[in-house]
Design a protein that fits this description.
Length: 308
C-alpha cells in the first residue's frame, strides 16, 4: 500500500468530512464539551516507521472520552486476565445508546460489552485497588507515545457535576452484584480516564500500537500482549461505534472507537493508526465528519479488513 498517496490525499479527506459537519452537533450534556468549536476538524495517520502525516486541527487538545475504554480494557486484560474481565462484562453489541440502562436492567445480568458506559464502569471496578490513576495515565502516555497527556481538570469537574446517569448505572451494577467497590470512587477513576487531554496524533499513535500487535512501532518494545490486542481490536470492530457499529463495520471495515469529545481512533492492521478530531457528532454520539472521512479512505484505498 502506498502510504505516501494516502498522505497526499488528506486534504481531500478533510473536504469529505467538512461537508458533514453541519449535520451534527457538539455534545452539550457536559457543559465543558459544549464549548468545543463545532467546525474544528483534523486527521493524523501514523505508519509503521513512526512517521505521522496530518492535516487540519491535529494539535488541538480535547478529551478522549469513551476512547479511554480501549485503554481501560487493555489494562484490565493485562492486569486481571481474560476470564476475570469477561465474568464482569459481555462481548456482544448492545444495540442501545452508549449510556443506556434499559438492557442492563431488563435483559442482561451484566453489561453487554466494555465499550458502553455500564461495561466500562464494571471493568474499572475490577481495577480498583490493583492500579491507580497515575499508573493508568503513564500507560496511556506510553500507548499513545505522548508525554503531554494530562487530566483536563475542567472537563473532569464538569463531568463529575453532571454524571447522574452514570451514577444511576453504577448503583444498578452495584445492586446486581456486578461491581464491588464504592460507586463514587469507581466513577472518579472512570471519569478521570475519560478526561485525558489528547490530540489526533495521540490517537493515531494508539491506533498504530494496536496495528503493530501491541509493540512500540519505533523501539519494538512490547507494550501490550498479542492476546490483549486481538481481543481489543475485535471488540472495537463489533462494538466501538455504539449502536452504529454494525453499519460502520460493513461500510468501513476497520476496528474503530469513538468518543463524544469528537475523537475517533481507527486501526489498519499491520499498517497504520488513524486519529481524527471533529466535535460535531451524529445522533449516536460519533464524530460525523470522521465517519465520512473513514468511509472515503476505506473505499478509495481498499482498507476494509475483508477487502483484498
Amino acid at each position: 500500500m502506498d502510504l505516501e498517496k494516502i498522505a497526499q490525499s488528506l486534504d481531500k479527506v478533510l473536504d469529505a468530512g467538512r461537508r458533514e459537519i453541519p449535520f451534527g452537533e457538539v455534545a452539550d450534556y457536559i457543559p465543558e464539551l459544549a464549548k468545543s468549536d463545532k467546525n474544528a476538524l483534523g486527521i493524523a495517520i501514523a505508519d509503521r516507521s513512526g512517521q505521522v502525516y496530518s492535516a487540519g486541527d491535529v494539535e488541538t487538545r480535547f478529551t478522549v472520552q469513551s476512547i479511554s475504554k480501549v485503554i481501560t480494557l487493555s489494562i484490565a486484560l493485562e492486569t486481571c486476565g481474560y476470564d476475570a474481565v469477561f465474568q464482569r462484562v459481555g462481548m456482544e453489541p448492545s444495540g442501545e445508546a452508549f449510556n443506556s440502562i434499559v438492557e442492563l436492567d431488563l435483559v442482561s445480568g451484566k453489561p453487554y460489552n466494555p465499550m458502553i458506559n455500564s461495561g466500562a464502569i464494571a471493568v474499572t471496578d475490577l481495577l480498583m485497588g490493583k492500579i491507580n490513576f497515575t499508573q493508568m495515565l503513564d500507560i496511556s502516555r506510553k500507548l499513545m507515545r505522548d508525554d503531554s497527556i494530562r487530566l483536563d481538570e475542567k472537563v473532569f469537574r464538569s463531568e463529575m457535576d453532571h454524571c447522574e446517569r452514570n451514577r444511576a448505572i453504577g448503583w444498578l451494577l452495584k445492586s446486581k452484584g456486578i461491581i464491588e467497590n464504592d460507586v463514587d470512587e469507581i466513577l472518579k477513576l472512570y471519569t478521570a480516564m475519560c478526561s485525558l487531554s489528547v490530540n489526533a496524533c495521540s490517537l493515531a499513535n494508539l491506533g498504530l500500537t494496536l496495528a503493530c500487535d501491541g509493540a512500540d512501532p519505533v523501539t519494538w518494545e512490547r507494550v501490550l500482549s498479542s492476546d490483549t490486542v486481538k481481543v481489543v481490536k475485535t471488540i472495537m470492530l463489533t462494538c466501538g461505534m455504539y449502536d452504529g457499529s454494525g453499519q460502520f463495520a460493513v461500510e468501513v471495515g476497520l476496528p474503530t472507537k469513538s468518543g463524544v469529545g469528537g475523537g475517533l481512533l481507527s486501526v489498519v492492521d499491520k499498517l497504520m493508526g488513524i486519529g481524527i478530531y471533529g466535535p460535531s457528532l451524529d445522533k449516536k454520539g460519533n464524530c460525523i465528519a470522521g465517519g465520512a472521512m473513514l468511509r472515503y479512505l476505506s473505499s478509495k484505498f481498499r482498507l476494509h479488513m475483508f477487502q483484498n
